[in-house]
Amino acid sequence: MFKTLDDIGSGKRVLVRVDLNSPVEDGIVKDNRRFSRHARTIRELVDAGHRVVVMAHQGRPGRDSFVSLEQHADILAEHVGTPVEFVDDVYGSAAIDAIRSVDTSEVLLLENVRMTDDELPEKPPEEHAESEFVRALAPEFDCYVNDAYSAAHRSHASLVGFPLVLPSYAGRVMEAEYEANTSIASREFDGPVTMVLGGAKATDVIDVMTALDEAIDTYLLGGIVGELFLRAAGYDVGYDVGGTELYDHQWERNEERIRELLEERGDRIRLPSDLAGERDGERVEFPVEDVEKEQPFLDVGSLTVDRYGSVIEESAAVFVKGALGVFEDERFADGTVGVLETIATTDCFSVVGGGDTSRAIELYGLDEDYFSHVSIAGGAYVRALTGQSLPAIEVL
Fold first, then answer.
1. Engineering a disulfide at 366: which of 208, 352, 361, 380 sits with its beta carbon 3.0 to 4.6 angstroms away?
2. b/e map of 110-147 (b: 16 or more CB within 10 Å)?
3. Are 56 and 15 in contact (CB under 8 A)?
4. Closest by alpha carbon to 102, among 54, 148, 159?
5. At what angle do helices 334-344 and 302-313 cross, to 10 degrees?
6. pTM of whole model > 0.70?
7. What is the CA radius of gyration of the chain?
8. What is the DSSP string of 190-202?
9. Of 195, 266, 192, 196, which Cα lies nearest the Cα of 229?
């Protein structure tokens, strides 16, 4: 197991990697729960009298979201409750001078680490540790803290290079995410374990189902993957209509595996009994037995929500990966929000993962405290569920 903030001591020069990657609209960076989560780690380091320097990324080169972290410093400061200085440099002379000027309990945010050539290549930690980026910054610090669990599936320089050259620790987000997201394999539950699976990436869902096998008693499917499984079961859904490009290519890639899962675990897989679409601007629900797919379906129906709710209420643990519908449109949020509300009011261990699903909790005013853990990770959450390696955790 990795070391945590409890093992650092006090009065250190600490380099902290967080994940502040956020939506950007018209050049404006939007606040989100990542700031508040990581602020807890940073605040704890500040309160312990450390000199704190923060690294983070935003977007990727070539995308509209690839912007400076200058706005992030102001948002982060609001959550930490102390000023956060910003320097528009990562490891050059301006950055080094700013780092050396940080005093006890002060916080400095470096520029977007993906603006350096050394950051993005997927390389072994040993190679990243020898990069100019790591070699320039490491001597300025006593230790390194990685709190960026949601980026832990990446073998990038700021995530895997520093633990080889500095005493290294997991931040509170990293610690909590790791414990919750591996609990499906590491914990024993006194009762049935249920997994709600949806979203747009069928391959991810199928990988999760394949990897977990006997760890799950019941799978509740929705979203695009739910339609693909319904197609395999003989219903007239699960293919593209009206200009969509969501189903057919995923069907071609996964048809054999879907059919195998239905054959092998059909008694544990629950499929939607009704689906919702749009007619004259209103939500309309269709029983799957009677449906002919002439328009896109955007949610599971109310009968499905009731059936799934009954399963959840009898569960000792519930894990969620992916939304059951297009919840951003309030007309088609019933499936996702209805299931989340049932989980929230059920006495069970619950983990809600995936950026979209956790965003629904915030969007519809659900209280995070009613869930055991709400993950801010996407790709790392899927990797944890499927037992794949997370390079940034391995080096810790």
1. 361
2. bbbbbbbebbbeebebeebbbbebbebbbebbebbbbb
3. no
4. 54
5. 20
6. yes
7. 22
8. SS-EEEEE-SS-H
9. 266
- Tokens of residue 285, six digits: 């629900």
Q: Which of 356, 322, 362, 340 is nearest to 33 (CA)?
A: 362
Instruction: Give dist(CA 91, CA 137) in Å, integer.
Output: 6
Angle between helices 223-232 and 202-212 (to 10 degrees): 70
Q: Which domains does the chain have, with CATH numbers?
A: 5-178 (3.40.50.1260), 182-365 (3.40.50.1260)
The maximal CA–CA distance of the chain, rounded, in angstroms, is 70
Give the span between the Cα atoms of 190 and 232, in whole angstroms: 33
Entry field: residues in the chain: 396
Q: Answer positive or negative: Cα dihedral of 106, 1, 349, 264.
A: positive
Number of H helices, E strands in the chain: 16, 17
Strands 349-353 and 373-374, sheet pairing:
parallel
348 CB burial (10 A radius; 0-12, 13-18, 19+): buried
Q: Residue 258: what are its φ and ψ, rounded to 5°?
A: -60, -45
Q: What is the per-residue pLDDT across 183-222, written as a single tens digit (0 to 9) for each?
A: 887 778 999 999 999 988 899 899 889 888 788 999 999 9
Looking at this protein, which amino acid is placed at residue 199?
Answer: G
Q: How far apart are CA 60 and CA 41, in angstroms?
A: 25
At 169, is the secondary structure helix, strand, or coil? strand
Of 132, 109, 137, 110, nearest to 121 by C-alpha is: 132
342 phi/psi in degrees, rounded to 5: -65, -45
Burial label, 271 (beta-carbon count in 10 A; 0-12, 13-18, 19+)? buried
Q: What is the pLDDT of residues 291-334, one digit of tens each?
A: 889 899 999 999 999 999 999 999 999 999 999 999 999 999 99
Residue 362 structure tokens: 């915030």
Q: Of all residues in the chain, what percent carry a pLDDT higher than 70? A: 99
- For residue 195, what are the contacts with CB-CB under 8 A and spacing of at least 6? 208, 212, 216, 218, 219, 220, 318, 319, 320, 321
Pairing of strands 299-300, 274-279: antiparallel
